[in-house]
What we know:
31 strands, six-stranded mixed sheet
Amino acid sequence: xxxxxxxxxxxxxxxxxLLAGAVACSPGHDSPARSGHDAGPAAVAAGGPAAGSxxxxxxxxxxxxxRFCDVPLPAAWQAAAxxxxxxxxxxxxxVPVEVTADGTRVFADxxxxxxxxxxxxxxxxRSRQTVYAxxxxxxxFGAGFDGRWLVFGVNPDRTDPTxxxxxxxxxxSAAAPFPVAHDNxxxxxxxxxxxxxxxxxxVAARPGGGDEVHLYDLAARRDGVVYAxxxxxxxxxxxxxxxxxxxxxxxxxxxxxxxxxxxxxVLPPQVGAAKGVHDASSDGVTWAxxxxxxxxxxAWREGMTEPAAVVTAAPGNVVDGVQVAGDLVTWTDxxxxxxxxxxxxxxxxxxxxxxxxxxxxxSVVVSYRADEPVTGTSRATGYTxxxxxxxxxxxxxxxxxxxxxxxxxxxxDATR
Length: 416
């Protein structure tokens, strides 16, 4: 059944390496079959609330019976990551913060020799340009790029997340980045600016309480507030702007959205019915979210009758940093960064240890720390992959969707 996004016309609302010897079966993740969590409504139903929450009696659709399993990293994926590796030099930390939709350019927070810069790596890393010299003690705090405009956050004091500034840079101009917004002393959600078609979106806390969803016209340098409430970082889901919202103290968060004109968007019922959503992402076709237990990841796309339970992290672990790129859904937990393939119902490990991933269209940029065998230290680095160019992950073994042997301890990290 096809469920299209529907817009309402009521009052306009007031105007978010690669482990070469990948561990095939990690104790930090369980498929729904072996996690001790039923994938149906008796447990965590389609991102439903955890027991005891304010919305635990909410009715939500049951998850798909499909079960994902973890599989070894294919050689073709490993080779793609190697080709997309971001070059660096010894002693230099390169932390990717955004990738272009074609995957050939990466923006990164680069630290070396006592300084930090926001650097644009072009031509698959063969050339670089310093976009912004960060003040001493500062770091980049999220970024978004639409092919022309880069919007990035700067935190001048890493010990105080309430201090921030948003800047914008026109990659087609020789001009320096210009300020877009700055902190107002209120403590609120982290800044994760997103950019689409010349518009930047972010969520900022209000001094009197609550949050504001901003939509900024970069060419006109004009800001507007499209919504106010108890909301989370916003993200573009195709043409619509979405976020997670709690309607009242203690209420479970749901996914809400508006169109470019500020009109409320009615989401597909499989997405709109999810309650207690901890994290969410979408490209407008595929939606992924984390349940209120913070351990169970669900995914749904057009053509699916029900959400699929992708993974349930082991007790004490969490699923966070969810992103969507074509057929892939990526996430990070306490151990590593992972990717699930919706074509095959399987997932694989992308980093040897804790990392992160961000997406822009079909492109994925993965950040992690690689060992330096000569110095015995590690450095931050990353790589890019094109989700549309990757072959499908291997499907789950017939009859044993969760029985994939673990990699041996002697497997090395070939990204060094």
